[in-house]
Amino acid sequence: MKVLIAPDKFKGSLTAAEVASAVAAGLADVHPAAAVHRLPVADGGEGTLDAAVAAGFHRVEVPARGPAGEWRTASYAVRGDTAVVELAEASGLHLLPPARRPLTATSAGTGDIIAAAIRAGCRRVVLGVGGSACTDGGAGMVTALGARLLDHDGREVPFGGAALSEVASLDVSHLSEVDIELASDVDNPLYGPSGAAAVYGPQKGASPADVETLDAALRHWASIAGPEYAAHPGAGAAGGVGFAAMAVLGARMRPGIDLLLDLLGFDEALAEATLVITGEGSLDRQTLSGKAPAGVARAAAAKGIPCVAVSGRCELTAAELASAGIAAAYALTDLEPDPARCMAEAASLLRRLTHRITLPNT
Tell me, what is one Gene Ontology molecular-function annotation carried by this entry (predicted)? Predict the structure, then answer.
């Protein structure tokens, strides 16, 4: 009997690898004869890099600029000529102080990481774009890769979304070439009422006036870099990094969990499995919209393998779980009603919770 453990992180308490370890320990307590394979997963957001490393990629540290332009150490993961880059490593919102910089935050650091991977010989980059601090239309990223954004006087335009209104021309004659696949479930266009500034700007500290400034600047940037890509679903991902990746770098966008499962070798890991255990911190309506557990369950169902889920809490009905291919869900709140204790004692509670999972033919 083989059990494949393929969870996402429990945000704020456990990484995906820690979740998998706790579940494996719980299974060993009550089913010591079961063969267990751990494959932590991610959907392109936070944890993507860690999932790649857990699957056998090698972590490489490089210098990269943070969202405020300061140099810091960031990482990517590599196997063969494929690099996995997590945007939040250099351009993440968590890297800014409480006083956000919605008008000037840059994605240049993401470009720094990609450039380092190219110099190291990588020819394919999988870019996960969750958790960005910037609304710069990806301009910082492509600048770090050799593009030049020039104003009417031929001077280079400063970093940040607001400065995009000054762009008069885009020089890509020295742009680095690389095959980029974008892992994202965001389907927002670049600008407009459902665009990057309007929907995500306030989360990054943008006032209503800032949102108007950024939206107008993104609209202008699109007119220079590729207006036909502005309305493409996902152009608004990561403050417009999705737009620049497609319009300037020729990137392809795929649903994050599908791309990551392929990259991590999920189908191979499924071989001979009799049960898949997935999970994330909160099983809720967002789970049903392409988050990692739903993607894992869908892939397992395609092979006729049952799937159950563990979580910190579960807000889905049995019918909703079944619609996602999840046969049953087990939540930490079933053991401990206090959310604070669930967060603080997540690993030990999860190990105990796993004792409740019934394996096929047991």
Answer: glycerate kinase activity
